[in-house]
Amino acid sequence: MKSSKINISVITGSRAEYGLLKNFLFLLKKDKKIKLNLIVTGSHLSKSHGNTQTEIIKDGFKHFDKIYLNLKKGKNSEIINSMSKLLTSYEKIFSKRKPDLVIVLGDRYELLPGAICCLINRYNLAHIHGGEVTNGAYDDEIRHCISKIAQLHFVTHKVHKMRLIQMGENKKNIFNVGGLGVDAIQKTKIVKKNEIEKKLNFKFLKKNLLVTFHPVTKEQINTKNQIDNLLSSLKKLKDTFILFTGVNSDTNYLIVEKQIKKFIKKTKNCKIIPSLGQKNYLSILKYIDGVVGNSSSGILEVPSFKVATINIGSRQEGRIQSKSVINCSYKSKDISKALKKIYDDKFKKILKISSNPYRKIGSSKKIYNIVRRYKKLNFKKKFLDLKF
Questions:
Q1: Of 189, 80, 105, 148, which is closest to residue 381 (Cα–Cα)?
Q2: What is the distance between the terminal CA atoms of the chain, rounded to a whole angstrom?
Q3: Are 337 and 347 in contact (CB under 8 A)?
Q4: What span, in angstroms and rounded, lies between the C-alpha atoms of 309 and 209?
Q5: Mind listing the pLDDT tens digit for each residue in 331-344?
Q6: Which H or E run contains 76?
Q7: DSSP string of 114-183?
Q8: What is the pLDDT of residues 212-262, one digit of tens each?
Q9: pTM for this prediction
Q10: Which of 269, 286, 330, 366 is the most exposed place for a label (fewest CB within 10 A)?
């Protein structure tokens, strides 16, 4: 006899996307009418990326399905082989769990095989953060592919809803709930400055920067030159503490990681932490002058702290941005110019009046309330044309 509970499977493949999902997962877990199955894969299970499954366990999710991947060399062949393994692994897990609904967030390659498995086996799929654009990474195409497979959409901005409608999706199944990152900030108790220093074993200085730089996957460019240009600009700074976060598992991640570690050995007042954890990460944003690199967090979450973001290159090109974001090229002179602008009095005034375009209150709760009654929706999918 089939259970009366709604059987929901949620896939997470990285620390960043888990941090966004966490509060939503708590709501699902507490609901006695929902049976939650968490599927953990990607960099969560990699020691070199911080083994962030430990954070998931600490949050109370002690039982989950795992799919281990070979991410040691950061080559395209590894990613393709991993996607092949993921496809067959998701098939085995879904066959066992029999989900009524599968939920994914974002655009990582770990998620696409899960979406394809849903398509072939006719599992209902919900997609969070669809309709966005990031021209510099193949994540962009992956995100759109997942959106075309999904029946239910939760977007972060009205423009993203319009983009999905343009892609032929039914507007009745698209909900603008705002950014889950902003939601997480509102629910996180910030750790005090001295406690952060003691916990992570570093000292803030007069000036402080957080650096997150990932490989750019959709350009025929020299990854080493990109990261070296950034590091040469950072080396010129004085009285500045520089905290690096870990690099994600995209192609050529080892090149970026190797250059950062070499830089730290030769430079004072620097530290790298593979994974800060959401609470530490959000707390650090409270005490720094700017975030430097090409992470989506600099666009989606950091503006809520009225902290500057230096967004380098094309990886996040196409995203709707706050006035707190400074865009620059990969050239060292342009990065140095952007670093100088952070401390400019004129720009500081802009920071004070800037706002986060992804801010909506209660995003997690909004998704939860829709998901828990999703069976009432019509999931028969067809392509809806605009009026020509």
A1: 148
A2: 49
A3: no
A4: 10
A5: 999 999 999 999 99
A6: helix 76-97
A7: HHHHHHHHT-EEEEESTT---TTSTHHHHHHHHHHH-SEEEESSHHHHHHHHHTT--GGGEEE---HHHH
A8: 999 888 776 689 999 999 999 999 999 999 999 998 888 888 999 999 999
A9: 0.91
A10: 286
